[in-house]
Amino acid sequence: MKMRDGFFWGGATAANQFEGGWNQGGKGPSTSDMMTGGTHTTPRRITPVLEEGTYYPSHEAVDFYGHYKEDIAMMAEMGFKMFRMSINWSRIYPSGYDQEPNEEGLKFYDDVFAELKKHNIEPLVTISHYETPFGLTEKYNGWASRDVIDHFLRYCETIFNRYKNQVKYWLTFNEINCLTMPLGAYMAAGILFDGKTELTDGVDSPQTRFQALHHQFVASAKAVKLGHSINPDFQIGCMIAFMTTYPNTCNPNDIILAQKKDQISNMICGDVQVRGAYPGFAKRFFEEQGIKLELHQEDERTLKEGTVDFYSFSYYMSIVESADPAVEKVGGNLLGGVKNPYLEASDWGWQIDPQGLRYTLNHLYDRYQIPLMVVENGLGAVDVVEEDGSINDDYRINYLRDHIVQMKEAVADGVDLIAYTMWGCIDLVSASTGEMKKRYGFIHVNKDNDGNGDLSRTPKKSFYWYKGVIASNGEQL
């Protein structure tokens, strides 16, 4: 099965992990700028006040801010049709609640989009990707407050008008379903719970998280409607961190548990943003969790009128659920689960499941019947630079090849798939750990976990492999 003509092959990044220039060009601090480095075993910390002598990985990241022309040229050499990137909200509105935008920040993205156009690369822009202005955390505790909706819409109106002729494809919130999990409160919504300094310190309030999620649903729906009024050609999508979930056994208890995990982790968000209403199972879940959402009278209509044009998602792995508390557990992207004996795992313990991508694509398309994009998929691994400077990342090629094969199977199954932007096309800072050691890219960046390195860019073996994939529209794997 061939991919459709005009299929969008490309790569994906996020400003907080990639852009750098955190205090340049009038930019204010974002939530990610207040997060220290970490490791696989040492959690990142959140510091409400910057600590002297402490390393903050997003401050420089890999400096796309200073290397964007070089980076886009390398994407073009691979043949990219699409580049997924995010606009750093605090580069446009430094505190988040400013009344006027920062012109220097707007001009930077003018230049980036012009460079992409020069190379015939379509931008896919995430409006909010773990980059809430920290000023909104300080003033409102982030998305815990409904007041943030209006500030977000001012930001949206600014960028929709400014870039209405440069950008067609937009995503409102990255991995919006992160707020269904404790880890997502700060990263996805800028919420600080009392005493919380580490992303994994166990402090949580489901009431606050799901109220913040509702605020983001309303904001997303209003942004979709606003965007379509500014340019009817805009295509505006949702973005979900898809948690593909299998039952551990055919025990009905395992089946029901896996179904519930899928419903809460994935389908609440997809249903609200695609179908325009909370699904039936949400009512029981909220009641059992003691969650009482504060809804405004017009919210129901807003959600119904602001449904998305396409559905995008990240897919790295699958997880397994068991009702037996004694079974062996493993880690994963935002959410861990039970060890799957049929799968291998990455260096970071994420279970590698290419066929799960085919399953997921079918699962989603059967439910929603709108175009799909895979906007994150990749392998975080330790790369070795050989004496001659080469990087032979066959493990990355194998991972991506196997997933692309399963994407093609899903297309043969009848799924309307329009784009594939693998994650971290150029090495960047890991969101979960703050490391550089965990590399995803086709392009190596000379920088280590402590921030040392000259940031020089070097193609890996996978760079040339992906170039062939794109040139053949997925036939040459």
TrEMBL record:
InterPro entries: GH (IPR017853), GH_1_N_CS (IPR033132), Glyco_hydro_1 (IPR001360). Residues 18-44 are annotated as: Disordered. It comes from the Bacteria. Residues 29-41 have a biased composition (Polar residues). Gene3D superfamilies: Glycosidases. This is Beta-glucosidase. Belongs to the glycosyl hydrolase 1 family. The gene is bglA.
